[in-house]
Design a protein that fits this description.
Transferase(Phosphotransferase), domain 1; 5 helices; 22% helix; 249 residues; alpha+beta; globular; single chain; 3-stranded antiparallel sheet
Length: 249
């Protein structure tokens, strides 16, 4: 059985028969004023998540969905992972929604392992800068990577919100952390403590956001140095995939 949903940025497919979850980019769409809207770095974010899931599973014990394949379907990039049997923290029954448990889990199991992964290159594992949404929305810029003499950047998830923790429906224990589109190597203060509150209570500090943008503004692309090109079919095909992954329906 397969179920599909669509948001302003993605189309989602849950296939319980194949035990897969697929997220796909959607075509550009026109807003009420007729302006064509294309989600910022939509393809690059899917590629980043695919590579990050593989990196996390190879270098930590943080539970994440197994990445299965990255491919173009009808001209649009899609990412398929294993389907996690569980519910997001937000949808747990009240008696299992323990924010103290979630906070302890993040602080003892997640953050120490992420902060142990360091790099001297700013941005994603494949060299792009895709910061957390609070930084680029609504005014993204063509930030580019930079390197330093020491490994001063630490891996962040970029959106450690309650709805990105898949939990056991009977015990409330975390089974996987999902949605790694904004992951990359940044100063550790780029990771906001979103797991403390439900999504509808999430509120960003404008001064803090400006601080992060000012940090990234030190490395902007120029027109002649544009490194933010869309991936080609051959580039996507060259990424590692699992040959045993089930076929998409």
């Amino acid at each position: 059985m397969a179920v599909e949903e669509e948001s302003q940025e993605r189309r989602y497919r849950w296939d319980t028969h194949a035990n897969t979850f697929t997220k796909m980019e959607i075509p550009p769409w026109a807003n009420s004023r007729g302006v064509l809207i294309r989600p910022w770095r939509s393809q690059q974010r899917l590629i980043n998540e695919f590579l990050t899931l593989d990196f996390i599973s190879s270098n930590t014990t943080i539970p994440v969905p197994k990445p299965l394949r990255l491919e173009f379907l009808d001209g649009h990039l899609s990412l398929t992972t294993e389907l996690i049997d569980g519910v997001i923290f937000d949808d747990l029954p009240p008696h299992l929604q323990s924010t103290s448990y979630l906070d302890e889990y993040v602080r003892t199991e997640v953050l120490p392992q992420l902060r142990a992964l360091r790099s001297n290159s700013l941005g994603t594992t494949n060299g792009l800068v895709i910061p957390p949404r609070r930084v680029f929305d609504p005014n993204p810029k063509d930030w580019q990577s930079r390197t330093s003499a020491v490994d001063e950047y630490t891996l962040i998830h970029g959106d450690l919100a309650q709805h990105n923790f898949m939990c056991d429906r009977d015990t409330g224990e975390v089974k996987a952390i999902i949605d790694w589109e904004y992951a990359g190597f940044y100063p550790d203060y780029f990771e906001a403590c979103y797991w403390h509150h439900p999504y509808y209570e999430k509120e960003d500090d404008p001064a803090e956001v400006e601080k992060l943008r000012n940090f990234l503004d030190q490395c902007l692309c120029t027109d002649s140095e544009q490194k933010c090109l869309l991936p080609t079919d051959s580039q996507v095909a060259s990424l590692p995939t699992d040959p045993s992954a089930p076929a998409l329906l």
